[in-house]
């Protein structure tokens, strides 16, 4: 007969005990284990301890089986329990919580990012999605990334003529290609392992596939990492965008969409500066006619690879601490599906609908304090949080302040002071009619950055970036560089 223990939290443990007691002719459990020291409508005599006590209880009671019950929103707590049991050689059997079936409005879960940031999801206008996806040849760069892969799923669901998945990571490309093939078997798709920075190769692929709609999502995004590797940021974020944008007009694409970021506004980081320059280049391309060029700018994406939620969940599973860089830091947030849907809808807006705008800014609601988001994330896992400087309840997850990392701001902006945003027919999308840089300035910038894109000397790359993004740090003004390089342009 197995030595059975019941594990749960609060009401779920109480209902589990009642259900087990109501069934005759089965092994009686040796007792109950709470996730932590929270109240439960279970006799104290039956409580053996908390999940932290499980190693000791395993030896004392020779436990070999655990019957586990948690509400559906406590996914993190359930996984933490499974891992603890596996480590001790305890077989896990799970049963659903009856409260899930009775509750018509379940609480916010760790798997429900919009609930964490306190916003309702925005519904997609499928007519606009179909205008740019249905019956179209759609090409996505960075198709294995968080936004790229969601754009791929969205495009595949709208019955495209062909879906081209361009990605340089073998594993990422394999995974999204397999997923699209399984979920949308009728969609004609092509998986292309290619680095968009290779301009000649990019043009060749565009010529072979002749895409109508191009979504350029490939980019380096981690701010501290790019501070240490500025040449990589320049090469990938600027010249990757340039290669794709140049190829788009050469093959007569209908539209080209640059997926940008709020960090491109008054950039203080290398990543933000390179995305800012990519915006400038794409804006310049929009003056050539033919292909419709636009940019879609938004903030942090919850649940993306390497995002704060991913990091925090890993830290919570390890028992903490959960790290926050500054107690007053705020960010704009949206979910991956919401971001991808709004990117596609923005690309469908015609110039007359958006006042001729070529920059679209996603309305992300009010900025969220990172510290508050950390607390909500911990609590959504069924745990209690101990804020910095607080002792917290027994078994709570501590939050520690680590300090702002290189290139980070306390707050982000979605638009420059001079950018007057206006509403569009699509809820959640704002537009700005920008004035592109002069052709000679754009060419000078491209030449200047091309001279350092492979330079191993970080300071040389930073000097060039400062010339074109003064907010990075005061440096030589672009006008001087334009004057000096204009002569070189004329000689080429």
Plain-language structure description:
- The structure is a single chain.
- The chain is of the alpha/beta class and about 500 residues long.
- The chain has three domains: about 5-105, Rossmann fold; about 115-310 and about 330-370 and about 410-430, Rossmann fold (3-Layer(aba) Sandwich); about 440-485, no CATH class.
- About 40% of the residues lie in helices and about 15% in strands.
- It has a nine-stranded mixed sheet with strand order 8-7-6-9-10-11-16-21-20, with helices on both faces. The chain has a five-stranded parallel sheet with strand order 3-2-1-4-5, with helices on both faces.
- The longest helix is centred in the middle third of the chain and has 21 residues, at about 230-250.
- The relative contact order is 0.11.
- Residues about 105-110 and about 475-490 have low confidence and may be disordered.
Total strands: the figure is 21
Instruction: Give the termini distance in whole angstroms.
Output: 85 Å
Estimate the strand proportion: 15-25%
Indicate the CATH class of the largest domain: Alpha Beta
Quote the average pLDDT: 86
Number of helices: 18
Which sequence of strands runs across the widest sheet? 8-7-6-9-10-11-16-21-20
Task: Decide which structural class fits the backbone.
Answer: alpha/beta
Write down the Rg: 26 Å
What is the fourth-level CATH superfamily of the largest domain?
NAD(P)-binding Rossmann-like Domain
Q: Work out the count of structural domains.
A: 3
What percent of the residues sit in helical stretches (DSSP H or I)? 40-55%
| Low confidence ranges | 103-111, 474-492
The CATH architecture designation of the largest domain is: 3-Layer(aba) Sandwich
According to CATH, what is the topology of the largest domain? Rossmann fold
Largest sheet: 9 strands, mixed
Choose one word for the global shape: elongated
- List the quaternary state of the chains: single chain
